[in-house]
Amino acid sequence: MARMMVATYLMFIAYLHSSLSDDGHEMEEFLKREYSLTKPYQAIGVSGSSHWELMGDAMVTTDQVRLTPDMQSKQGAVWSRMPCHLKDWELQVHFKIHGQGKKNLNGDGLAVWYTKERMQKGPVFGNKDFFTGLGVFVDTYPNEEKHIEAQKKRYTPRTQRIFPYVLAMVGNGSITYDHERDGRPTEIGGCNAMVRNLKHDTFLFIRYVRRRLTVMIDIDGQHEWRDCLDIPGVRLPMGYYFGASAITGDLSDNHDLISLKLYQLTVLRSKQEEEDEEEVTIPSVDNMELHRNYYEGEGMSGIAIFFTVLFSMLGLFLLIVVGLVVYSHWNESRRKRFY
Ligand SMILES: *[C@@H]1O[C@H](CO)[C@@H](O)[C@H](O)[C@H]1NC(C)=O
Ligand SMILES: [Ca+2]
User: Fold this and answer.
1) Measuring from each residue's beta carbon to the nearest atom of ligand 1, which residues come in under 6 Å?
2) Both 243 and 333 in a single domain?
3) Localized where (predicted)?
């Protein structure tokens, strides 16, 4: 038992330093300081003297980059000045969302970006709509469920989302983020994350390896990563910008960024794999339909369920009959052998 615990502990430590990709290839991580934002935040925003640039209502203090204060109608962002040309990477986001608002009377959330565009104000958590690239959102206000009460009744437990909700979206420049529906039509995956007003540190972890997008969260103060989403076939071009943004409306929160740490992952690829990975120019997700979290067409209709059950039972009945026939034949021939 003790040995097992030690082994588990060692595995955990190993995981922190070099983690295994899903097919067991070992990866090494290197912190890339030029794409990271950590304390002390030296002269952010002063032109040319930093790798990062502030925008809107964002403010730097000694302890955090405050994207928005806990006040109505604010929006702010911080953007890397340099495009990132890494193929495989991992972004660890240390953030804090807190405010006076009671549960569900706060908003609207923050976003972490890897996009072609940078420094453009807009309605998507303070960033432009019709963006090109990846957005991971921590949405703290359930617009859809608040404003479309009637539709709520149509949710099955599987498709109802509990807020705050973390979700990922990939834009190609002509896809809109549906704010009133909390991005449901374009969601590729997500999870609930109770991140507000916590005493302990909260982290978001975004990994992009071999076109696989993995988001994990560490929000329980246990130093454990919890799976949020894991999607293969996500095609993101190189040379985009990392950024983070937040917005408040009638409801507000402090949206604080404590650090962004970007790790380069070195993944061994075979020659064949290298060749197979043609250059991506437009972001996209393979088999997008599979990832949609829709309630339209979600679940089976009564008739579909009826026929599914009917045919399953017919199938089972047939199997039993065939089984019995085979068994009796076998029994017969065995008896014949004995006499
Ligand atoms: C962007 O994605 C949408 C929806 O998948 C598609 O209809 C559109 O053609 C794409 N645009 C580009 C420029 O690829
Ligand atoms: Ca929302």
Assistant:
1) 172-175, 282
2) no
3) Endomembrane system; Golgi apparatus membrane
Question: Counting ligands in written order, which one lies closest to the CA of residue 123?
Answer: 2
Ligand 1 atom closest to residue 172's alpha carbon, by position in its atom list: 1
Calpha distance 41→119 (Å, rounded): 19
Taking alpha carbons only, the member of 238, 215, 235, 216 closest to residue 225 is 216
Rounded distance between C-alpha atoms, residue 217 and residue 107, angstroms: 20
For the chain, the domain total comes to 2
> Which stretches of the chain drop beneath a pLDDT of 50?
1-24, 295-298
**What pLDDT shows up at residue 336?**
67
* CATH number for the domain harbouring residue 19: 2.60.120.200
pTM for the model: 0.79
On whether both 183 and 310 belong to a single domain, the answer is no
pLDDT of residue 14: 41
Per-residue confidence (pLDDT) for residue 103, from 0 to 100: 78
The number of the ligand nearest the C-alpha atom of 180 reads 2
In a shared domain, residues 302 and 250: no
Closest CA to 169 of 118, 246, 229, 120: 229
Ligand nearest to the CA of 174: 1
Using DSSP, state whether 291 is helix, strand or coil.
Answer: helix
**Residue 284: CB atoms within 10 Å:** 14
Closest atom of ligand 1 to 288 CA is: 5
Same domain, 120 and 184: yes
Mutate to test the pocket of ligand 1, among 174, 176, 281, 282 (most ligand atoms within 8 A of CB): 174
Q: Are residues 222 and 295 in the same domain?
A: no
The C-alpha atoms of residue 87 and residue 198 are separated, in whole angstroms, by 34
Residues 250, 328, single domain; the answer is: no
Check whether residue 143 and residue 211 sit in a common domain.
yes
pLDDT digits (tens, 9 = 90+) for 80-109: 999 999 999 999 999 999 999 887 789 899
The residue from 287, 313, 330 where one domain ends is 287
DSSP-derived 3-state class of residue 306: helix
Q: Ligand 2 centroid to 36 CA: how many Å?
A: 27
* Same domain assignment for residues 50 and 125: yes
Could you list the residue range(s) of the whole structural domain that residue 140 is in?
Answer: 2-287
